[in-house]
Amino acid sequence: MQYRANVYIFTQKFFVTEIMEKLLGEYDCKIDGKGRLMFPAALKRKLPESSGYRFVLNRGFEPCLTLYPIDTWEKIVQDISQLNLYIKKNRDFLRYFYRGATEVEMDATNRILIPKRLFEYAKIDKDVIVFAYVDRIEVWNREIYEKLLTDAPGDFSDLAELTMGNHPSKPQEDVP
Fold it and tell me: Which one-letter DSSP state was computed for residue 62?
């Protein structure tokens, strides 16, 4: 019986990993008068149907919103639930991270209702940029997003080297 339980867990993890495509793209979108985001059809096709098109919408680390597919959110929750709650910085992080987190679902016409508090946090108006990467989706006020890209680092090559140059998956070569 224990063997079957382990196989089921492995199969479930394998299924989620294999079925969900990596999210990618930048989309110009609109918010309607009721505060609903029209979700891009091209991006919806990359989501696993098994998710039921359910998400957790939360404050981003920058002034944006982050939309996590429910499977991604559950993995994040599993990771951060390992934090030691006797350490004040961990409790502070958890409070801030969970602040505003709201489960949302796409309706039959591909719209997602954004709660008012999150709407205000990200200074969202009717024109937004939906930016998808890896396993999450950011929703940005168009002006803030464009300013962020305008204020890009002076030398992207240096940032790439600093960020990815010592990445553990890359073997380090000795430079003479």
Answer: S
Structural domains present in the chain: 19-151 (3.40.1550.20)
Residues whose CB is less than 8 angstroms from the CB of residue 50 and which lie 6 or more positions away in sequence, other chains included? 15, 16, 19, 71
Query: How many residues in the chain?
Result: 176
Rounded to whole angstroms, the Cα distance separating 96 from 139 reads 19
Q: Which residues pair with 112 in a beta bridge?
A: 37
Helix locations, the chain, DSSP H? 2-19, 41-44, 70-80, 88-98, 116-121, 142-150, 156-164
The pLDDT confidence band at residue 161, using thresholds 50, 70 and 90, is confident
Are 25 and 136 a contacting pair, CB within 8 Å?
no
6-44: per-residue pLDDT in tens? Answer: 233 333 333 333 335 689 999 999 999 999 999 999 999
β-bridge pairing 54-59 and 127-134: unpaired
